Amino acid sequence: MILYAFTWTEFAQQLAAGIREGAIYAGLALAIVIIYRSTRVINFAQGEMATFTTFIAWSLMNHGLSFWTAFPIVLVIRPVENAPVLTIVIITLGLALLLNGLMSVIWGGANRQFNGPFSTRTIDLGSVPISVQDIGIVAVSVGLVVLLGLFFRYTKLGLALRAAAVNPESSRLVGIRVGWMRALGWGIAAVLGAVAGMMIAPVVFLDPNMMQTILLYAFAAAVLGGLDSPIGAVVGGILLGVTITLLGRYVGFIGSTLKLPAALLLILVLLLVRPGGLFGRVAVRRV
Description:
Radius of gyration: 19 Å
Shape: globular
Strand order of the largest sheet: 1-2
Low-confidence stretches: none
Oligomer: single chain
Number of strands: 2
Number of helices: 11
Distance between the termini: 49 Å
Mean pLDDT: 80
């Protein structure tokens, strides 16, 4: 049941807010997709990894470093990589709990202001005020997927990483070091998570649980777009952000409390039609 009056100005404002929210989900969804492409497992610690690196950046900035000085330092953090799939899943769950506990012990549970790289001032596009920060977050997400697309399509390293993920046995036969490729995938995902954390913290405030809800939306965005598609992660994130923002505003019984269940229901319906997501592919094996 629609409970709110519709105006084009307000719709445009809600659309802009949804795109901003979607870009936030897309940043973390990209990291999830890269891990999946590299190892065929889901990293359940991705949110805590991103938060942990953001706390390190916050600490460095509090000791006099600028954002752009702290930024490259925190990108070097990387988790474990070469283990059986079930072991990695268990390790990522344990790592998530460990990092969350460490953050609470080291930095406490209070919310903190994180000063990001973009201004919070607004500019008017027509009658819609949009902050420079929102534009920056969207631009970073789009820029990351373009760089990843070029990397995976046109570089030998990117092609080797894709080959090692799809067919590790054949890759070894042609000289590809599969273990190194998996490590590279974890490293790239850690970098993407760190970037996502430092883009998100200025919007939602920094605390040890900052990414927990966002991680659920990021998983949903990755599944929506296709778990093996970086482009799908961004498109899925933006579609998800726009959809739940509009549903929360215009469908009265959903509001802010039922956004996630509504989004997951819509994704479930889509997956019944396209099991691989919007841009993913379903593997078919001949018997």
